[in-house]
Protein 1
Amino acid sequence: LALVLWAARVVGRPVKWISERTEGLASDHHARDNVSRAELALDRDGKFLALRVALVANLGAYLSVSGIHCPTNNLGGLAGVYTTPHIYVHASGVTTNTSPTSAYRGAGRPEATYALERVIDIAARDLKLDPAELRRRNLIPVAAMPYDTRFIFTYDSGDFVKNLDMALELSDWRGFEARRADAKRQGKLRGIGISNPIEIAGGPPDVPLEEGAEIRFDPGGSVTLLMGTHNHGQGHETTFRQIMVDVLGVPFDKIRLVCGDTDQVIHGKGTFGSRSMSSGGSALVRAADKIIARGKRLAAHLLEAAEADIEFADGNFTVAGTDKTIDIVEIAKASYRIATLPRGMEVGLTEAAVVVPAGPTYPNGTHVCEVEVDPETGVVEIARYSVVDDVGRMVNPLIVKGQIHGGVAQGVGQVLLENIAYDPKSGQLLSGSFMDYAMPRADDLPSIAISSHEVPARNNPLGVKGAGEAGTIGALPAAMSAIVDALTPLGVTDLDMPATPERVWRAIQAARRQAAE
């Protein structure tokens, strides 16, 4: 990128460089190359007393811009949704001959959640407790909100017990043993896994970054939104317009969205960290409040009433207690007619806001995954997948479900397939194309059952929480725990990702040899 910018300046013309697939796989930033050792202490009743984690993170041959962000800045996820009173973590970074590592969907939160949820599963197995019941005994109660984990994060809201109850019902957790027995009759191994992910969105936790928005009405009554967050597939052109419809009552088809154009957008930090709705949406609401205040002044002048008597609702300015009203589109048009303006009022109806959110949000939920394993081939099939998510108030539930689906698919991809492989002797990259690096496809996933539990966030006026990364964070431990649960009767109690057919088959063979000996 730096050389492209330099070349464009030298030649005075646009310069574009297009990477070949193999170049990209060899040189692009990789992610999630951690080795973690987790220890969990419990009392006789299964209450968590302490968690200790030591992790070693591969940083690659040289440090990327976000190289240490993932293994350090998001360690707060190790507290999870539990009341663990003592947590100690030691993180080490090492340099190797591999490509640099950096942020990837979840950016450290999947790694933290994976370490925590997997060690809880091991504790449940050793104590002969239902994994869901062990988690229930340690969940933070809703009455404790806001809750300071005393390990980086302070949760503003959440109802983790309700998430768990809804997920157990949605997944038919209690009917699993019958499905396991049926699979056994067919020569398959069936397993189930559960995870309670929570993450930070729109951080960092101490000083959330500001975000800007501008609302600009034109003389015809249409409106342009100029947003500092950038849309690249998340559906901003729908959700930000929905907010405008709800807050200002402007017709949907009269709204245009502009983002990413720094010649027009006054201020913006951009789209990352699942912050667009909480940060950008907050700025948009603040700008809308300014539009309403300015509109009331003009409406009072046009309706010959006191400004204090003007009420605004559903896109209409009304004199309280009367039927005298004027809608916001007409107000926008009137704002450009100088003769109709009150003395001293500027022409036009445009307002902007730059907002620092009161704090980050903490999306959370419960994932339940069921798998079937063919012990003769090692092939793993995701048989059922259920999610209960709390992303706060949902502006567009369909888009939220799409984000959850995509996140789960990426998580399952890492669990089953994806692996950057190097020759152990020469260091040569072996997975240099999509012939060698397996990506998840539609037939790798079942229909994903999703139910939402909306607990509004307290740190922004919309009550929204991030949704873009939540699916991945819960998928890693839920899917991997299900695979290990399926293999446990054979004596396989641990397995590293990805659980490819070869790895699963070899683990089964090793367990059978050990049992025979």
Note: The longest strand covers residues 48-60.
Protein 2
Amino acid sequence: MRWIWAGVLVLTLGCEGTIGDPLRDNPSRRPGEFGTEDVRFDARLWRLSPQHFNGELERLFGSGVPEVVVPASAPENGLSDIAANGRVDVGNAAVFAEGVRSVATWIVNNLAATRCASYGTDECVDTVAGWLPAEAFRRPVSRDEENAVRALFDELRADYDYDYAFAGMVRGVLLSPDFLYRTELGEEGDNDEVVELTDYEIATLLGFALTDQGPDAELLADAERGRLRDPDTREEHVRRLMGETGPMWQRFFWEWLHMSTLNSQGAEVGLDEALVAQMREEYDVFVDTTIAQDRGTLRELLTATHSWTRPELAAHYGSSHPGSGLERVEHDATQRGGLLTQAAWLVSHGKRGRANVVRRGMGVFIDAMCFDITPPADLDLEAELERIAGPDATVKEIVEARGQDGTCGNCHRLADPIGLVFESFASDGSWQTEYVADGNPVETEISLDGLGTFDRANDFSGALVDDLRFQHCMVQRLAHFMVGIDVGTPDAITWTSEAHAAFLTSDTSFEELLVAIVRHPAFIERNKD
């Protein structure tokens, strides 16, 4: 029997959502005509995330600089680097101080990091005072600020040796709020309601939002010229930097699709650590090449039948590998297509036993489609499962019984069909046609009203590309990820609605989506206090 679920709205037991696109055939609701609210968020200070903090250290001092383990802010919807949650306070200030101390000690012992012709001289102190504050603060500094850095060295040198005073000067810069924080305070203008960010604040926002690192020389040059408030100039930088956006996209999809459990789940299902590392490598190269290097689309990301693997991972897939290292591999088009059929996502949402349907179904339904599910707090999942289906039920029988149950069905009939279509992949991401535990055949055929009938995960993944809810969720989460605050769904907000319209007009081009997000006035405007 085929599992069928009609895409109707469910509002019971904390579950809310629909699969399929209820607005697709409604001519009164077209892309770009959804959001009506023109939002601006408040001016703010925004602490560097651990990744950005260490990235900035490498930008300033080169490779080999010690990594500093600093506290991460609380995530939202799986996304890190959330503006409201990042701060330096009494509880974590010592962590920053000790981490920066190790960096300064390393710099003292690495002449190249100082950019000095010779270490141990007054000229070296002047050199560092001349370049470090400006580059660390991501803006020009005044003569007074340069002098304050030099004065810190002189004050320490009166009581300590040269190395200690030099390291103290470096620590002073790296512990400054101008380095630790990104400011988005703007300048007073004629508008009574909003302020525009300064050009250097825009340069910093663009740098981190697009490349996951601070602004490069060209962004800072246009900031100095006062050009970054012009949307055409911001668009020029998006297109110029598109090839460098790979790290940003890698982190975005990793966080949005909740893939951080790859290592732990890989260990649970018995995978070798080296093979798990190859799964992450495949993901990184695929995302970078598809989006940043080839300037591709969501359609390509979720349907491409090729990826880049090493021989061991290709063999795990049952694919032919052309060489001995990391190479482009063509997979069986009847089995794999796109990111959701690659091992990194499958294993991250896999589990030893019979829980793959739930983990993968919920992974798409909750994470990728922005639905909320709140199970009863006192529910004993194992006991309920045995009550519903019995200990010897097949996966398909469990799915059907759970969907029809009065307690569990309110949630599971929404997400379980999605998970079922991925059952051709074992917990370790390999292809399976029958279950090892009991020899029962794998049954995957599902029918989702509004999307269609599927018996293969790659076909379902391709259909997601055209699903309005999936598109809206991705655009909303991407804007949230780039600016550190949830600006709202395209259903309600003009900013994300217009970005979504540009995304669709370009046949799901990621580059055009970025352009639309950064061109909008809300990208550079903040509410007045």
Note: Residues 273-293 form the longest helix (21 residues).
